[in-house]
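Retro notes
What went well: the complex prediction finally ran end to end.
Inputs used:
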Amino acid sequence: MSETALAEEQSSTEVSSSKIVTLRIAKFNPEHDSGQQYVDFKVPYERWTTVLDAVLDVKKHLDHSVAVRYSCRQASCGSCGMKINGRPRLACFTKISELNSDVVTVEPMNNYPIVRDLVVKLDKMFANHKKMQPYVIREDSEITAPTKEFNQTPEQLEEYIQFANCIKCGLCNSACPTMATDSSFLGPQALGQAYRYVADNRDKGKYSRLKIIDESHGIWRCHFAGSCSQVCPKGVDPAMGIQLLRGYLLGFRK
Amino acid sequence: MKRNENREGIKGMANPGRYGIERFAYWLMRITGLGLLAYFIGHIYETSNIVNGKTAWENMLSMTQTTEGHVLLTLVIGMCVFHTANGIRVMLGHGGYGVGKPARPDYPYTPASQNNMHKLCIYASIGLAALAMMYGMSVLFGE
C-alpha cells in the first residue's frame, strides 16, 4: 500500500467518526507520584468502539506513556479490568456508546495495589484463589489408574458450571464493600471458586475447603451486598456461591 | 517501593448509588445498626438514672417528651423496623435460601442471587419502616 493510500485510509477513519468523547484517564506512578492525576483526551468513537479501543487510541496517538493491561479483547482473559465511570468493568466488554456519557473516566480497580496508571497488582487475588485448592481433590484418578470414568450427569454439571466461568478478572473483589475495608478478607473471587469445587460431585475435598474459609476473615465477613455478582462480566454470581457455601457450614445443605 | 493499596475504605460503603438497591440496603443496614447501637448505649445510660432517685429519673424521662426526643424516637422506630425486616431477608440469604439455583448463565447475565424477591423484600422493609415511623409520629405528636 502506498503512503498516500495509507494516509487517506487514516483520515477517512477519523472523518467517519460521528462523535467525540472525553476520555479522562487516571495517571499514577507509585514510584514518583504523590497522587493520581486525571488527564483528559478527546477521542473519536463509533457505536461499536469499546473503552479499551479508546484507551489504545490515546496510547497510540496522544500519550504513549498510558499504562494498560490487555490481551484477548473479547472478555476471555480478564486482563483489562478497570473502573469505568465509577464501576468496575472490563474495558474490552464496555462500549462507549452504552455509557451514555460525554465524559468517560477510567481509573484503576479499587482494592488492589496500583502498578501504574490503569494496571493493578493481582498477586493477592491469585494467592487467595490458590488457597481454595482450585482442583478436584480425590485419591483415585482417571489418569494414573484409568480403570473408570468419573461420571457426571448434566444436573450435577449445572451445580457448578456457572462458577467455572470465572476468568479471574478481579472485578468482583474491586466492587466488594468488605474488600474496601478489610485487607485480609478472602474476597468473592476466591469464595466463589471454593463453591465451584465443593459443588463438584467428583471432588472429595469439601471439608478441607470449608475449614479454610471458616475463619474470621473468611466467609463470615461477606454481608451479601451482592455488588460482586452485579459487576461480573461472565455471569458467575459469586454472591450466590458464597451464600450456598455458608449453607453447608450452617448445616442447611449437605 | 511503597505501593498504594488503593482501598476505598468507608467511602466505598458510603457511596451506595453505583450498585443498585441491594448495595443501598447494605449501606442502610450498617447505618441503622450503628444507630441502634448508639440508642442502646443511650438507653442503658437513661434507665440507669433510676438509681439516682425519682426526681433524677423523671428529669431524664422528660427529655423524651420534647420535640427533639420525639424525632429521635421516631428515627429509632424506623431503624428498628428496617433492621429487623431486612435482617430476616439477609439471614435467610446467608443460609442459602432465596438466592436462586446455580445454572448455566445466559447473556446478559442477570445474577440470580439479586432476584426480584430480594428487591421486593428490600422495598417492603423500607416501606414497613416508613409506615412504622408514621404510626410512631401519630402517637408521639398526637398527644
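What we learned: Chain B has a mean pLDDT of 91.
What to try next: split runs per interface for comparison.
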